[in-house]
Amino acid sequence: MKRKEEPRMPRMGTSRESRYGVRSLADTRGGVVFRPIGVIRSEHTAAKKTPIQPVFAAGCRGRAIVRREFAAAMKDLEGFSHVHLLYFFHKAKGSKLLVKPFLQDVDRGVFATRAPCRPNAIGLSVVRLIRRTGNVLHLEGVDMLDGAPLLDIKPYVGRFDRIEGSRSGWQEDVDDRTARRRGRRGYRKGRKSR
Amino acid sequence: MKRKEEPRMPRMGTSRESRYGVRSLADTRGGVVFRPIGVIRSEHTAAKKTPIQPVFAAGCRGRAIVRREFAAAMKDLEGFSHVHLLYFFHKAKGSKLLVKPFLQDVDRGVFATRAPCRPNAIGLSVVRLIRRTGNVLHLEGVDMLDGAPLLDIKPYVGRFDRIEGSRSGWQEDVDDRTARRRGRRGYRKGRKSR
Question: Going by C-beta distance under 8 Å and a sequence separation of 6 or more, which residues neighbour residue A181?
Answer without folding.
Answer: none
